[in-house]
Amino acid sequence: MGQRGRKWANVLALVTAVFLAGCGTYPADPSGTLERVAGGTLRVGASENGDWVKFSAASGGGQATRPASPRRDEDVQGTEAELVREFAARLGADIEWVSGTEHVLAEELKHRELDLVIGGLNDKTPWAQHGGLTRVYAESRDSRGAPHKHVMLVPLGENAFLLELDTFLMEAKEQ
Q1: Mode of pairing for the β-strands spanning 41-46 and 116-118
Q2: Would you write out the chain's pLDDT as a tens digit for each of its 175 residues?
Q3: Cα–Cα distance measured from residue 168 to residue 11, given in angstroms and rounded to the nearest whole number
Q4: How far apart are CA 100 and CA 104, in angstroms?
Q5: HEC-encoded secondary structure of 13-40
């Protein structure tokens, strides 16, 4: 490589370094959800729905009578509750459970009062305007034979948190 070639290679290296320095961390969480949850508390909204999320009879079962009610960890059961427990353990996080209707929980998520909403949601959920959807991690059929592709709901724009959860769900799906 001649002197002129080295000069252009140095210019290209400098431009690349400046470009990469400006990119920051990708993906990012504008509200810092992943950073806050890791080693902290994962705030989960749970809406009762079949085997996906159940509330124990000891806790009164069923949906909360108030719009959003705190629940003890042992009161929340079901397939998605167990997945959330495993995800929280992976992040070294405690879980703060809140139960409510999908509508109330989606509103809480929209206003950043929750980090995650579960409840047997599928990819056609009307609450997608309130949050980001994970990738489809499970499929089922209802009693009429209609297929459902299951997702979870996270705060909009929290892409690092979403990527971490998606990665976990895909690993869990493969097991």
Answers
A1: parallel
A2: 667 766 666 555 545 544 444 556 678 999 999 999 999 999 999 999 999 999 986 665 655 545 677 788 889 999 999 999 999 999 999 999 999 999 999 999 999 999 999 999 999 999 999 999 999 999 999 899 999 999 999 999 999 999 999 999 999 988 8
A3: 41
A4: 6
A5: HHHHHHHHHHHCCCCCCCCCHHHHHCCC
How far apart CA 98 and CA 118 sit, in angstroms, is 10
Q: Are 117 and 45 in contact (CB under 8 A)?
A: yes
pTM over 0.85: no
60 vs 67: CA distance, rounded Å? 15
Q: With b meaning 16 or more CB within 10 Å and e meaning fewer, what string describes 73-87?
A: eebbbbbbbebbeeb
